[in-house]
Amino acid sequence: MDLAVDLSGITKRFGAFTANSGIDLAVRRGEIHAIIGENGAGKTTLMNILFGLLQPDEGTIAIGGKTMIVDSPAVAIGQGLGMVHQHFKLVPSLTVADNIFLGMEIRRNGLIDRAAQEERTRSLSEKFRLRVDPRERVAGLSVGMEQRIEILKVLARNARTIILDEPTAVLTPQESRDLFRTLRSFVDDGMTVIFISHHLEEVMAVSDTVTVLRDGRVVATKPKSALSKRELVRLMVGRDVSFDRRPRAQTNGKVALEVEDLWVRDDRQLAALKSVSLSVRAGEIVGIAGVAGNGQTELAEVLSGLRPASHGRARLHGQDILELPPAAIRARGLAHVPGDRMVRGVDRTASLSANMLIGRHRRAPFARAGVIDWSAVHGEMRTLIRRFDIRARGPKDPARSLSGGNIQKVVLAREFTAGGDVLLIDQPTRGVDIGAQEGIHDEIMRQRAEGRAILLISTQLDELRALADRILVMFDGRIMGAVDGAAMDEDAIGLMMAGVDPANMTEA
């Protein structure tokens, strides 16, 4: 077997925690090999070991049939490996060509030969069908174009095996399909691709071979043709999980949240929301779709009182809320699950009980005559730990002792039980394992069934497909259009996410 990469017995420990345990991974030359698993399964740790960013405690690495110690990325690059990280590492103020050759500049007479770099960039982009303008500054480019540049950076270093870590996290569906066609062309040219993902549809669409990790171990390596999506989930989680569209009763509740001609500025004082109008009825889930960075965060912040509006109106049960502080908005019935759980969701140094108490520290039964009844608080937190399957020893555990996914469950548990009848939920399953996502979706549908109005912001189209009654698509701070959740057209949504009106195919 002609192997591009052969890992044998790879073990990596961080203190008492074992991230990788005796992993064997053989990647054939000229294939797309997907590595899939839940968050914390050990995927990225394993690839960081292969690329020399981490050193294994046990095991061997062979590249191109040669066993070696890969103790730095320079060694990996020298052996024809390249890695495109989940978070791009570009310099916005530099041009495309300058970014591609950063650290390995082409020089002439001691000076950077920018003409040569631009010509080399054009040649690479044409050869690999990754069209870019070498002279354009990165600051003005889309995330899809930024990813092309990251891939070209790897190719400029003569990589023959490319590692892609969650490459579609910030792409529209159309950009993802373009990427998959590019990856297939790499393989046709004899290159090898290692593709890390937790999106099952993508793995089924693009891979030749799939390795599944669970709890730091390999549970299966199979040809993609021998797997179904259902079997992949079972291998990842250890049980069946359903992500079908959730059944629901029809509702026609009153408008609970209404936004009209809303304008908001971002931290740079640029328009982040531009004439946004929407409404959410009691017993309805309205989804907000879009590539991250198109105004979704600012929308959540202004509705929760964390950012001022420049113009427009927002009403909760008919009452204006734009001039109110966050506590007053919560008192009027809005519960908020923030997109950044670590910054605005929890106090990591405080206990789970103290985090649950936020916003209800003056209410009975948790407070009596101004004094906190910690017995009642701990009892409620124990109930929430069981209901939301929070993996903790008890209510007195500090939040920092939990994984990111379990901290997310703490935030959801607090907000879903806070008594609000309007839920503003931003990225509910970010960083949450696939098995736990099913439980969170169940809770969201439970809130809908109880008559709450829900504004659900998510970058995951499959999540919106499963949950939303209506989906609004945002691009560049605007609502591009709306689709029925039951008849979601992914191509139409993808066009709108890229700023194109599918009705007339004109760019916004």
TrEMBL record:
Entry keywords, A to Z: ATP-binding, Nucleotide-binding
Transmembrane annotation, as ranges: none
Domain ABC transporter, first and last residues per copy: 5-240, 257-501
Endpoints of the signal sequence: none
Protein origin, superkingdom: Bacteria
SMART domains noted in UniProt: AAA
Pfam families reported for this sequence: ABC_tran
Molecular function terms, GO-annotated: ATP binding
Family assignment from sequence similarity: Belongs to the ABC transporter superfamily.
Protein's recorded name: Heme ABC transporter ATP-binding protein
Taxonomic source organism: Xaviernesmea rhizosphaerae
